Amino acid sequence: MRVLAVLGTVIVIGCYCATVAAAPPERADPALAPWFKSLRQPQTNEPCCDMSDCRTVRYRIAGDHFQAFIGSQFPRWQNAPHAWVDVPNANVLRRRDNPVGEGIACWFRGQVICFVEGDST
User: What is the DSSP string of 13-52?
Assistant: First the structure.
């Protein structure tokens, strides 16, 4: 039940830090905005959310890397493949402070630019 409540909240908030062209969804939890805004691309140190939407995603481990399911439930994402997508190991943020407890992927120009694993509990 907790997972459904958290997932529902996250789906509603989407990425509060979306670009100016994309306003936060209704009922967005502004308390989570600083965390989403703190996500930085490992290779460039650029913000993950300034260029893309970050959303909760289903994810799995495939060999030595993560895969995230990128689908149409997030209408602002462009070129969503509706499939399991490999997450480059270089784009995995090794953070343990995920406040939503679900996998988070930031999708931009056909790739996952940032990924945070959900908690294992």
Answer: HS-TT--TTSPPPTT--GGGHHHHHH-B-TTT--BSTTTS
Does residue 76 lie within any of the structural domains?
yes
State pLDDT tens for residues 50-63: 656 788 889 999 99
Mean pLDDT of 92-113: 90
Query: Within 10 Å of residue 108's Cβ, how many Cβ atoms?
Result: 19
Looking at the domain assignment, is residue 84 inside a domain?
Answer: yes
Q: Report d(CA 108, CA 6) in Å as an integer.
A: 24
Tokens for 75? 């209408």
Residues 78-99: tens digit of each pLDDT = 667 889 999 999 999 999 899 9
Domain count, the chain: 1
